[in-house]
Automatic annotation (TrEMBL):
Annotated InterPro entries: DDH_dom, DHH_sf, DHHA2_dom_sf
Organism listed in the record: Tilletiopsis washingtonensis
Superkingdom as given in the UniProt entry: Eukaryota
A GO term, aspect molecular function: exopolyphosphatase activity
Signal sequence interval, chain numbering: 1-19
Keyword Glycosyltransferase: no
Keyword field: Signal
Name of the protein this chain belongs to: DHH phosphoesterase
GO cellular component: cytoplasm
Amino acid sequence: MRIAALVALLAAVLPSALGVPAHQLPLAAPLAPAPAPPVWPAEEGVGHFSEWSKAQKRQFVTDVVAGKADEWVLVMGNEGGDLDSMTAALTWAYHLSHNNEAGNRTIALLQTPRDALDLRPENKLALRNVLMSPGHRDLLTIDELPVPPRELAKQIKGIVLVDHPAPLSDWEEAKVEAIFDHHLDRGAAPDARPRIFEPVASCTTIVARQMLDELEARKEGEYHVPHEVVELILDAIAIDSKGLTNSQPADKFTAERLLRRSNWRDEKLYTVMARLDDELSAAKKALDELGVRDLLRRDWKGDLVKTADGTPDVHVGFASVPLSLEDQVERTLYNTTDAWFGVLDGFSNEIGVDVTISLHSYKSKRHEDGHPKGGDVLRSKKIKVREMVLAVRPTDNVSDAQATQLFDLVSKTLEESPFLDAERWADYKSLKPRQMIWVHHSPNGGRKLVRPIVESAIAGWKDSLAA
Ligand SMILES: *[C@@H]1O[C@H](CO)[C@@H](O)[C@H](O)[C@H]1NC(C)=O
Ligand SMILES: *[C@@H]1O[C@H](CO)[C@@H](O)[C@H](O)[C@H]1NC(C)=O
Ligand SMILES: *[C@@H]1O[C@H](CO)[C@@H](O)[C@H](O)[C@H]1NC(C)=O
């Protein structure tokens, strides 16, 4: 019964997800692929990492269909899907599936829809450099799961979180086997092992260090780590540490150990890391062609926040956009702030979000006027400006009055937070109800800081109209 249901589901989902025309898709077991080679057959080679990844993906889909999901561990990064999350997940999945026989049923799951992967040009470049297939055929993304995450969570052996402090609500019934993260520890899964929270620049550092430690300690000798894996890891560390100029000792020491295993082993560490950072950062900034909707979903994180009894749980989402609102507004049809809010509202509606926060950061020279005493040096120095936009909309679960309460609650929290020191946007009076924009300059005042502030305020929401 269960298998039949799965097969039906698979037939419905797979053709579009895997790009296979429905009539070519066998309904049951014949999908079974050759198993992944447990160890790389030979040295270097074109796209070995891609082949491994593709084979794991096929095996996983086959096993889920056959009702054998219970043997699988899913390694997942956060839903923003940046290079760090993606690389940390791929690295740990690669390690687990090679480090012991039983661990061969491990796969990295990217919690990003497949078409959103292309909105991150730096990821695209890094994947191309390590010879992954175009179009990400070899990566498993959230929209390609043969069964919905909530269902799958109950069937699999467990999940490993990387670059992510707590499972998204869809996965709350899965066992968290391990956590590697550099965000704030929210106390999730206290029994996970390893469970490492460390404020390094790149979460991939933590994962790679653990991998190297275990690899070098193997009594049976090392398994083969293709240079592509090592180079992808160095990419992730380079971009998050700004070429090791903004890093912790662990980032540097781990990068050094990796460099010796890469094809760049004869070069100097800082030279390599600066070069990788330059290449990837340049790609990352190439956002000229993206419209507002794509800018919002390019780096989006959100989840259901549980609230007290008597109030609906609230779906909260955070976009992070490295452009000013003004720059984004220019990309709307009418070049107006109102048109920009229209896009934000449309996207929030599409994915069912009640409270939407869009965080923008950009460099500005405009402070020249505000700093009369600044000499030439100060004048030419650009400063980082941050904008926070809040919009709350009533939905099926959140009434009009409740939406207003939520808006007031989040507004007040953001406005009063001593960590943000936010000021209202100059023209805030022109905004519609339940919309607000603030400007601030807090260093490290991005989503890592703002999200926990907003989520804990919402978690404590009490409906003042309820009896
Ligand atoms: C995974 O390990 C099991 C048990 O050690 C083995 O029977 C199986 O063939 C392996 N599968 C793959 C895909 O390597
Ligand atoms: C958009 O509007 C601003 C100010 O209203 C103006 O300076 C800018 O040139 C406009 N941009 C476009 C692309 O129309
Ligand atoms: C409303 O809440 C229920 C229960 O929490 C949830 O299943 C449903 O998806 C929510 N609907 C919307 C539109 O958010």
